[in-house]
Amino acid sequence: MTGTIAPLPDLGWMLRPLTEIPGVRHAVVVSEDGLRLGHMSAANLTGPVAALSVDEAEALSAACAAMTMTGRSTTSLLFGAGARVRQQMVESDHGFVLFTHAGEGAYLGVATDPQADVGLVAQQMQLLVAKIGAHLTSQPRDTAAASS
């Protein structure tokens, strides 16, 4: 058996409208299992993470997958096996991180400053998902293909 790994397209270009919202620092598109599908940082940022590197975006993607798994476990426990997580928010001393379901097998994550209007950010995330959700979908990867 041999496996084929197709390169994932970088979907970072789709995130520009989110990074232009006041207070938004970074945005990432993540597959359900934690692979970075794309990322973008707002222009002219200062502070400890002024622009996400690929390595930082990949680490954020893995953390996003862990958060969504925790959310799925919690909602299944409280609401039954079929309950899906639609949105999550983490608040810290330095801002917010919002996660939303972005299509089959994909999530969208956005990090903001503490002053950001998280209601506006969440609304714009939903609008982006509705507008380009088909591009944000991450189909399960073919782990192995039989060869004859």
TrEMBL record:
| SMART domains the UniProt entry points to | Robl_LC7 (SM00960)
Q: Which domain of life is it from?
A: Bacteria
Which Pfam families does the UniProt entry name for this protein? Robl_LC7
Q: Which InterPro entries match?
A: Mycobact_SerProt_Inhib_Rv3364c, Roadblock/LAMTOR2_dom
Sequence ranges assigned to domain Roadblock/LAMTOR2 in this UniProt record: 12-112
The name of this protein is: Roadblock/LC7 domain-containing protein
Q: Which organism is it from?
A: Streptomyces triticagri
What does the organism's lineage look like at the top?
A: Bacteria, Bacillati, Actinomycetota, Actinomycetes, Kitasatosporales
